[in-house]
Design brief:
Elements: E1 11-15, H1 21-32, E2 36-43, H2 46-59, E3 65-69, H3 75-80
Parallel strand pairs: 1-2, 2-3
Length: 81
C-alpha cells in the first residue's frame, strides 16, 4: 500500500502557560508542521487565565487559544486527559 500522494491532516495542541519566547517558538515549530494548530491553556487560576486570554487577543497570532477547565488544578491531567 503506497502512501505517496496521501495527505493526512494532523492537529497540534501547543500548551500555553504564559506569553513568552518559548510560546512563540513552539507556535513557529507547530506552524512548520502544516497541520491544524490550537494553543491550549488550562484554567488553573481564573485571574491568570483572564490575563493570558487578554494578552493572546492583543497579540492575535492567528491561532485560536482554547482554555480548558481545570477543576483539579492539574495541568498534565487537563491537557492529556
Amino acid at each position: 500500500m503506497s502512501l505517496i500522494g496521501c495527505r493526512a491532516t494532523a492537529e497540534f495542541n501547543v500548551p500555553v502557560v504564559t506569553m513568552s519566547e518559548v510560546t512563540y517558538r513552539a507556535l513557529q515549530a507547530a506552524l512548520r508542521m502544516r497541520g491544524e494548530i490550537v494553543a491550549v491553556a488550562a484554567d488553573i487560576d481564573p485571574a491568570t487565565t483572564k490575563r493570558l486570554s487578554a494578552q493572546w487577543k492583543e497579540w492575535d497570532p492567528g491561532i485560536p487559544l482554547a482554555v480548558l477547565p481545570c477543576p483539579h488544578r492539574s495541568l498534565v491531567s487537563t491537557l492529556v486527559g
